[in-house]
């Protein structure tokens, strides 16, 4: 039965430096003081409508909800600079404590929200506000985990599209204030948002958004003056966490690693939970992702995601639920593609998952493409080669990309890319039984280049009987010799394909792509030494992949010993 809700708009909340931030407060019209859930957003508090959890859903369960514009955004005072994380922790602390002191709050406060709204939760929790009882960060990451996922590359389209939207607001604010706006600046911002492939092909990249006074220039990011992702002192986060991620989220690795780090320092069951769905990075989490309809349980609604949040808060914010826990099925819920159901695990990866290697090998019987074998090839070592030209990169198509720009995320068909001469393919025989790939996947390649610095990019796909090759996971790694000359021996390249839960059905085949670009999702390596984004020119490179014998290249999967049957969890 629904509750009557009171909503107060633009409620002032004074920070320690006197700056006033404003929030909308949602609360039950009747009843005693209640626990509160705080959302802090730079995207406007009024349109907040996340699939993870909404203020209205909080009120329906007897919680108050506070939705605040962060410093310098929309109704809040102060100055806001893109990617300046220094103020978010103190502002989060002050807002938690303000909330706890209101007459409609019983003194227990949680935080929730997605992406930026998740990052500010970690930053606030590090400050240890006395009345913060739990956080629920969805789709977040931290600097070291993000760097590990990218292998030294720059998530180019993600960064520039987000900064492009910020630059558009900057131009609009200057115009509204009567400041002159250079027409060339406006034209570049519009071009970045509408036809980004043009400015993103520049050498060097630091000339993009290089506007005097713009608080978020790529030049400053490359110079280390601005951090694209926040870092956390996790040892100072003492509250329970409810982490939510997606297999095709740009921050999937970070979300999982943050959960694992919290479990490692605080292993009590039920204190730190993880939900990983079939989703891309989005505030809306429908059942259709890429080219796959995941069925009725694949959406946030089908997963009961809001209820899972509020159940967690009940256990940690209400006296009657503090000791209850929900460890019967384990602290991890994950969605298994192909089974299209939710599964529970004690931890991540599931303890029952085992390593299973698949070995790259050369073609056989007149075939052009290589093979992927469950046993090491017997014919000795071999090699395949291709030419990587940064001026003709492999285009991005699906995967873990942000959809602010012009890219599409998720499990998309890669077949059109497989015809390119700069994409090497290694494919298994059709499977005779289901194979549940669940956990962290890695790829070890013996990779050579005639350039002194280069990159290797890899993908794992599911080849259907009809020829579709759906993207499951992907990885990248920048390679460079210490002395700036081409390596005498192949690199021993360890690529992190990341985590997934995917059932390869009987009759399907596993396939590995090996190439050197994924543009504009990732910046193009110029094949010359130097810092990311600062190269002024590029050159083609002849790339060689070795396999067999002493040059073993191997895909290492984590698989369940037997096909798993899920439930709706």
Automatic annotation (TrEMBL):
**SMART domains recorded for this chain?**
PepX_C
MF-aspect GO terms: hydrolase activity
Read off the SUPFAM superfamilies from this record.
alpha/beta-Hydrolases (SSF53474), Galactose-binding domain-like (SSF49785)
Q: Which UniProt keywords apply?
A: Hydrolase
Entry keyword annotation includes Hydrolase: yes
Q: Which residues form the Xaa-Pro dipeptidyl-peptidase C-terminal domain?
A: 310-556
Q: Name one Pfam family in it.
A: Peptidase_S15
- Record-linked InterPro entries: AB_hydrolase_fold (IPR029058), CocE/Ser_esterase (IPR005674), Galactose-bd-like_sf (IPR008979), Xaa-Pro-like_dom (IPR000383), Xaa-Pro_dipept_C (IPR013736), Xaa-Pro_dipeptidyl-ppase/CocE (IPR050585)
> In which domain of life is the source organism classified?
Bacteria
Q: Which residues form a coiled coil?
A: none
Its recorded name reads CocE/NonD family hydrolase
